[in-house]
Amino acid sequence: MLEPIQTSPAAAVTVLNPLEWQAFLYVAGELAPDAETTFEALLAESQPAREAVVAAVQLRAAIAAAEPPSAATIEPARSSTPPPAQRHAFSGGLSPKRYWTMAWRGVLVASAAAVVAAICLSRTHEVDSVPSPWQVAANAHDLALRWSQWNNLTDSEPTKNDLAAAAPSDEAAAGEGLRLAPDGDEEVAPKWLLSAVAPAM
Amino acid sequence: MRPPEEQPAGGSPESEPEPPRLSPALIAALHAEHAEDLRRFLVGVLKNAAWAEDAFQATFAKAVELGHGARPESLKGWLFTVAYREALQLRRQRCSDEKYQRQRNQEPSEISRLSPQPDQRLISQEAIERVREALKGLPAEQREVVRLRIYEDCKFAEIAERLKLPLGTVLSRMQLALKKLRRSLDDESH
Fold first, then answer.
1. What confidence tier does B24 reach under pLDDT thresholds 50, 70, 90?
2. Average pLDDT taken over every residue of chain B
3. Are B118 and B150 contacting, i.e. CB atoms less than 8 angstroms apart?
4. Residues in A touching B118 (Cβ below 8 Å)
5. Which ipTM value was assigned to this complex?
6. Lower Cβ count inside 10 Å, N or C end of chain B?
């Protein structure tokens, strides 16, 4: 914390008129509270003191308005930097170091949340989506394999009872568009199996 | 003051006589002569252009009402005294208002905010040009102190810290610079 300057006309370097210097410090807000009170008491009764304030404001305003281009070229970054009060207002009252630490943490947390959300979304998509051609092919092959195993089983033990118990009835199969191969023609795959396997073959 | 019998016909006999006031011509003359300086003075005391304008208006309202009581030869001093009192009253009033206090703390110095569009009532374009020329003529070390104090709004103690100089050296450089810049403004008026 920077303390205001403890100046008095006697203590100041006597380059400027002491009253002018005091007025400049007063206008700049650089006087200590005691010195400011003293100077304001002087303002209440001294017209020269008031005129010194007028001159200080005029000079300061002229200097402020006359900012030379060289000032901006010496340190361009600094001249574009807002005053400390504005900088702190921008960062919500945090110091710059603390502000950027908080900002980086925020970025990391947001990135992690985005990755988790992307994973969840892709899984949901997989469950809801239509089976891919590769999945259809795998199912068809599986179906063909199972039918082949079942057919081999019926070859070794060709009992109609087993077949009737293992497969749906003719009526039920006809109702669903399924039809078993006729007797003596077991080597031919049923049409329903061919139609199921056909897209993948 | 006009005696009751001289009142125009039709006027109420019970109505109060008009209080004595400064003539409009005198008020206009006072404004023309002192308005600029009064505004600068009020900005210096209040360090806030909007408050200064309020105090300025209040000062002239008082001048219209009570200015007749001042001696003509000391009207300027009387006007500044009124302005100072109005400024202190306004500052007390506004500083007790938390909202105004917060607003003031957030704003940078009103005077330093005058750049790059200066208030023409505080400073003329010609004066700005003269000061600009004078700034170019300053030694680099003085110009650096001026730049840090006025354009960067650094306190003198902070400048001393940044430049690694004793505070007294910074203050004397600023005074030397102000003296030269002040002279450039004085040249304008002569």
1. confident
2. 81
3. no
4. 61-62, 64-65
5. 0.79
6. C
